[in-house]
UniProtKB/TrEMBL annotation:
Protein name as catalogued: Spore coat protein
Top-rank lineage group of the source organism: Bacteria
Length: 349
């Protein structure tokens, strides 16, 4: 429940081993900003990824089960005293935004290109590089598009100010989403090891079978591999690494802001447009589309060549880091919170 005089913002988002954590993590960045401004924040949904328990507890954010039906959820939101609703998820009923607005709530809806764009909202947010204004902007809704609105957690903003460590043997962090639901590690890590170059790899794996597969991979002299469970400290690990290999989801904006030399792979259809925009801009190294890496020897050969360059070319890594840092200023969460709270304040009583 909200406290008197404090705006109460509800977030409709889920995180699970099959869905991943991206929706909830970027919502947590916005939640941090809203909490710092005196709001109450509640998540309505399901969060079943263990490592998210720590940041939720630290922020004192309650997670409340969300009914599937928009009408039932809206009734719950009104009962809980929610003033504004943030919607982030591709499989959430597309009627929710309209239903919540009819009940008097201000609605902010995330989307990634066409994914999630069907929600009716007062504010549409696509934080991806090269994003275009939502079509409803012409009818009075507010559209926020592009990296000026990328949302970063406080941890990432603080890490961006730390100097990068220098390693005699390149250290590599491989993290393909918070839970790697598409098993990208079993495809990309063998290509990395096939370069034959010395490296110290830390690979984030969520499932025992994937951990066993990575641990069993052959490695050349001078190569070490450590597998770890998903952790809230992943960005701290990235900030201290020579190279990070990542899925092309929302975490890449955090990595670019940190100035980490990053190789990216599109692990799902909804990441392909963003992947191409980032690669075309020259701020990250192209590992490829996961679907092509699985079936094409030519794609795997190109990926190995890129991975070899990342490991063996310090000037290339430095250039990528500088380009990424210049692209993302880290002020997106403040901009989005400004718009949300202004819209909420302008709402008729």
């Amino acid at each position: 429940m909200s406290r008197p005089g404090r705006p109460h913002v509800g977030i409709r988002a889920d995180a699970s081993p099959s869905i991943g954590v991206g929706h909830v993590v970027r919502c947590l960045a916005l939640a941090e900003e809203l909490l710092e401004r005196g709001c109450t924040v509640t998540i309505f949904g399901s969060v079943t990824v263990d490592w998210l328990a720590a940041p939720l507890e630290r922020l004192a954010i309650e997670v409340v089960a969300a009914p599937d039906a928009p009408e039932a959820l809206t009734s719950l939101l009104v009962e809980q005293g929610v003033d504004a609703l943030v919607i982030d998820g591709y499989d959430i009923d597309a009627r929710l935004g309209a239903t919540a607005r009819t009940a008097g709530l201000v609605v902010l809806a995330f989307h990634d290109g066409d994914f999630g764009a069907a929600q009716e909202a007062d504010i549409h947010l696509d934080q991806n590089f090269g994003a275009v204004l939502h079509h409803s902007a012409s009818s009075g809704a507010i559209s926020l598009a592009g990296l000026d609105h990328a949302l970063f957690r406080r941890e990432v903003l603080d890490l961006a100010d730390l100097p990068h460590a220098d390693h005699a043997v390149p250290t590599v962090l491989a993290v393909f989403g918070g839970t790697d639901p598409n098993s990208a590690a079993e495809v990309v890590v063998p290509l990395l090891l096939a370069t034959g170059l010395p490296l110290d790899l830390t690979c984030v794996v969520a499932r025992p079978d994937l951990r066993e597969a990575v641990d069993a991979l052959p490695r050349a002299e001078g190569q070490s591999v450590t597998t770890i469970a998903p952790t809230p400290d992943v960005m701290r690990l990235a900030a201290s690494s020579t190279v990070t290999l990542s899925a092309a989801g929302s975490s890449i904006w955090e990595l670019l802001h940190l100035g980490v030399a990053t190789g990216i792979v599109a692990v799902a259809d909804n990441q392909e447009a963003s992947y191409r925009e980032v690669i075309d801009s020259g701020v990250a190294a192209p590992i490829g589309l996961l679907s092509e890496l699985r079936r094409s020897e030519a794609a795997r050969a190109d990926a190995k060549a890129t991975l070899r360059r990342l490991l063996d070319d310090p000037a290339y890594r430095e250039d990528l880091g500088h380009r990424g840092r210049r692209l993302v200023d880290g002020k997106g969460r403040a901009r989005v919170a400004d718009v949300l709270l202004t819209t909420l304040g302008d709402r008729p009583d």
